[in-house]
User: Fold this.
Amino acid sequence: STRSTNGRARPKSTGAAPLTRLIGTASDPGVKLELVRLLAETHDPASAEALAALLNESDTAIRAEAAYGLAELNDRRATPVLLELAQAPESVDAALTGLRRLGDPDSVPGLIALLSSNPGRRADILRALGRTGDPSVSRYLEPELDGDDSGAAALALADLGSDTGFTKLMA
Assistant:
């Protein structure tokens, strides 16, 4: 997804190197956050190391933007921060989108914990579990086929290549 800044979509051709240098010199937190957003929006694989380094920032908004940018690059170093962000109401949507995009098997324990701590997002969590490719999550998904989120569970099982998921989708 392309985020916009000040109402304008940022071109993907903006170079990562100059933005990385600017981030390193920015002292104002708001300016630094805007620069991190711009860096993430480049979708430039050369930005991955700079974004990964920002995962350790004390400012949650900067860490979040860095994690979202890494998720867009399919860089699994974002997983721990995305799992943390998925626990906060203001960031759960973007965090679960990033986790689903990454499909990181290492996210399974955190996603399973989210099933009980965030039942309102059950469908999104189930879909993220399916994208991990970890066949062991089937034991969490199959019971959901008879629940309110049966469609999400079936799609998640289908993501795992499960005949049960495909059968439910065809019913």
Q: What stands out?
A: Residues 29-41 form the longest helix (13 residues). The first strand starts at residue 4 and ends at 5.
